[in-house]
């Protein structure tokens, strides 16, 4: 079974592309969603987060206080790096267990915004980057995330690896630029990965 990573900066449309693969019957691991689950349920990680960020990291009911944690790492690269260094190894282990449960499939997908930044690309056989030009991404994000300003979005983009660098590191690129249809691109890669993993 092959492991295919799928990444792309905020607003590129990687989640839409992942959903298209899911429609084709491909198991998709959403790293962001699973990270939240692991932060709630993994006792070792809970302890690590409490030691690093203090008792306010979890509410009295035992729920992760995401607002508090976000305020701790926002505009603080060292704390953000610390958070990622604690969470990503546990998510990597969670992915291994999940992937093993789909060993009968030709391939699985792992969707992660920080595929290269977190080094999780090393677990993958190949990586797809979903690309969209900056102006189009800004337009999409301002429509989608109405609570964010253009300055907020640009601050998030500035913290992510550039699209050009992601394209350079990936083995495959899907263009979601409103010029090329994405379904034929997904079908072509699906056929390729299915044959390779069969």
From TrEMBL:
UniProt cross-references to InterPro entries, sorted A to Z: Depp_CoAkinase, P-loop_NTPase
Any one Pfam family match given in the protein's UniProt record, by short name: CoaE
Single GO MF descriptor: ATP binding
Subcellular localization(s) per the UniProt record: Cytoplasm
Cross-referenced CDD domains: DPCK
Keywords for this protein: ATP-binding, Coenzyme A biosynthesis, Cytoplasm, Kinase, Nucleotide-binding, Transferase
Broad class of where this protein is predominantly found: cytoplasm
TM spans (from-to): none
Annotated ATP binding sites: 11-16
Catalyses which reaction(s): 3'-dephospho-CoA + ATP = ADP + CoA + H(+)
Enzyme Commission no: 2.7.1.24
GO cellular component: cytoplasm
Gene Ontology BP annotations: coenzyme A biosynthetic process
Pathway info: Cofactor biosynthesis; coenzyme A biosynthesis; CoA from (R)-pantothenate: step 5/5
Origin superkingdom: Bacteria
Family: Belongs to the CoaE family.
Function: Catalyzes the phosphorylation of the 3'-hydroxyl group of dephosphocoenzyme A to form coenzyme A.
HAMAP family: Dephospho_CoA_kinase
NCBIfam families assigned: dephospho-CoA kinase
Protein name: Dephospho-CoA kinase
Biological source species: Pontibacter flavimaris
